[in-house]
Amino acid sequence: MLFAHVSNCGGGQNTAISPRVLICGDGRCGLANEYSWYESYKAAVLETDWTKIQGRILRAEHEIHERQIVLAKEQGGTPEERQALEDAVNGLRGLMNDASVWQSRQSNVPPSTRPSV
């Protein structure tokens, strides 16, 4: 993923989750905490256990889809949220591809040599 801009917010460590969503280490900036779907998205992106990642992605996709339905019905939301939703969907798509590659590699590894989880 390419990140458009990462600024220094309050001297804390910053994490770019998507091109437009930034979480500052001090928790003081970024759009991320404003969105109802964001926590499930963050959980998927930050998951390190490949055996759990697909479930987290599916949950995030569901919550994002539900928000998109609400926005379509109400003609609401901000341009920033609509862009963040699009960025999140694209990020999850890439993450799902990575998870699929990992899954296929696991199915090609003999059980005795697989890492334990």
What can you see in these coordinates?
The protein is mainly alpha-helical. The chain has a domain at 32-107. It contains 3 helices and 2 strands. The chain has helices at residues 38-46, 50-74, 79-107; strands at residues 14-18, 21-24. The protein has a two-stranded antiparallel sheet. Helix 1 runs antiparallel to helix 2. Residues 1-12, 17-23 and 25-29 have low confidence and may be disordered.
What's the count of strands?
2
SSE run: EEHHH
Note the total helix count: 3
Gross geometry? elongated
Considering DSSP H and I runs of 4 or more, what fraction of the residues is helical? 40-55%
| Global structural class | mainly alpha
Mean pLDDT across all amino acids: 76
Quote the beta fraction.
5-15%
Spans of at least 5 consecutive residues with low confidence: 1-12, 17-23, 25-29
- Main sheet characteristics: 2 strands, antiparallel
Task: Identify the strand order in the major beta sheet.
Answer: 1-2
What is the CA–CA distance across the termini?
27 Å
Radius of gyration: 16 Å
